Amino acid sequence: MGRAVTTAVLADPRALQRSLTRAERRRKLRAFSLTLPLLVFLLATFMVPIAALLMRAVENPEVAKALPRTVGALQTWNRQDTPPPAAFAAVAADLGALPDRADAANLARRLNSEVAGARSLVLGTYKALPLEGATTPADVKARLVALDERWTDVRYWQAIARNGSRWTGGYLLASVDLRRDAQGQVERMPEDQRVFGRILMRTFGISAVVTLWCLLLGYPLAYWLSTLSARRANVLMILVLVPFWTSILVRIAAWIVLLQSAGLVNRALMSAGLIEQPLALLFNRTGVIVAMVHILLPFMILPLYSVMKSVPPTYLRAAVSLGSSPLAAFFRVYVPQTYPGIGAGALLVFILSIGYYVTPALLGGADDQMLSYYVAQYANVNVNWGMASALGALLLVATLVLYAVYRRVVKSELSLG
To answer: What parts of the sequence cross the membrane (predicted)?
Structure first.
């Protein structure tokens, strides 16, 4: 029977094609079913949180949800003069319709991030509602102004009008020191409020210094490991990987002990007569860089070592035998072949560095905090998830841009090679 089916299939090319197509489809379905759990895991733990982060960075529900009548009443307002009485009546009605104090607190916190003093204004008005005896919009306006004269300040009304939409680019603009003026036009923030540009440059500067030191320390170590026998290299590689098995907090605590004024480093330098007074190695940029280099050094060594092991040692010997000096042969023959490892290690260390939070927070001073510190500040202290998400999105974009640049450089090198 099987031989007859085989003969029929061979006799009909179309039947053979259909059989091969079904077999290929079954193979792909089997492969997809094996990878499906991993895809679901990545979707749930990686893609969904990133999508939620990006959405929260442009979501602005507090004002639109709490003050719908007020937002509608301000649609035709010129944003320069005091709003009409209908807007005062609308804000009183909206605040009076809030279910509980928590909703008023959320609204007050959101507006206070735009204009200082909005929190006390909103909560004070919320406590005074309802306004007895106010039957017309003009009466409501008079009662609100008598309750708090700040209701005549157009800045608070401008903040409500700017944030009337459920979706906003205000958080993303603020993360790069931009904002919208009263008319909705994008402009730079005042000089004394431009903070995130400096923080971003500081983050990149610290990350670049850490990456450079990791490269300077990791390259000779990786080269030495690549020249050893496999058994000795494996034993020493365990020492390189020891930091992976130790908690970051434990390592930071150890550096605090080492770098403090009466720590081992200062005592050793003073005992050797190299210094007379303890060096300031803690709670400044020096301590941050030292600890970050120690933590991230393995991420530089591993890519370098894997590339160096694939470089035949005969290349250097051939260059020397052809008349080149050992130093020139090393830099002209050997180093160019390790560029992929240098690029991979530098990219990995730099990307990990720009997201560091714990190390600068514990070992650095006020001028050494990186962008991730302010993400945590907005999320945990200020409870401004929109701003925290916008800063997180800024770090994500920086990471993607760095990766794209790295890919382009690698492709250009491969095409030239």
So the answer is: 34-55, 199-223, 235-258, 279-302, 342-363, 383-406
Q: Do 237 and 135 fall within a single domain?
A: no
Is the domain of 349 the same as that of 294? Answer: yes
Is there a single domain that holds both residue 243 and residue 293?
Answer: yes
- Joined together, the tokens standing for residue 292 give 């970050």
Q: Do residue 87 and residue 223 come from a single domain?
A: no
Q: Which of 149, 165, 181 is the last residue of a domain?
A: 165
- The answer on 129 and 242 residing in a single domain is no
Residue type, 382: N
- Asked if residue 7 is part of any domain, the answer here is no
Are 318 and 201 in a shared domain?
yes
Full domain range(s) for residue 373: 196-416
Q: How far is CA 175 from CA 61, 229, 388, 390, 404, in A?
A: 19, 51, 9, 6, 22
Last residue of a domain, one of 148, 165, 182: 165
**121 and 215 inside one domain:** no
Structural contact between residues 322 and 239, judged by C-beta atoms closer than 8 angstroms: no
Q: pLDDT under 70 in the chain at which residues?
A: 1-13, 16, 412-417
Structure pTM?
Answer: 0.81
Looking at the chain, how many residues does it have?
A: 417
For the chain, the three-class secondary structure string (H helix, E strand, C coil) is CHHHHHHHHHHCHHHHHHHHHHHHHHHHHHHHHHHHHHHHHHHHHHHHHHHHHHHHHHECHHHHHHCHHHHHHCCCCCCCCCCCHHHHHHHHHHHHCCCCHHHHHHHHHHHHCCCCCHHHHHHHHHHHCCCCCCCCHHHHHHHHHHHCHHHHCHHHHHHHHHCCCCECCHHHHHHCCEEECCCCCEEECCHHHCCHHHHHHHHHHHHHHHHHHHHHHHHHHHHHHHHCCHHHHHHHHHHHHHHHHCCHHHHHHHHHHHHCCCCHHHHHHHHCCCCCCCCCCCCCHHHHHHHHHHHHHHHHHHHHHHHHCCCCCHHHHHHHHCCCCHHHHHHHHHHHHCHHHHHHHHHHHHHHHHCCCHHHHHHCCHHHCCHHHHHHHHHHHCCCHHHHHHHHHHHHHHHHHHHHHHHHHHHHHHHHC
pLDDT score, position 416: 55
Residues 158 and 218 in one domain: no
Measured in degrees and rounded to the nearest 5, phi and psi for residue 38 equal -65, -40
**What's the number of domains the chain is made of?**
2
CB 53, CB 392: distance < 8 Å: yes
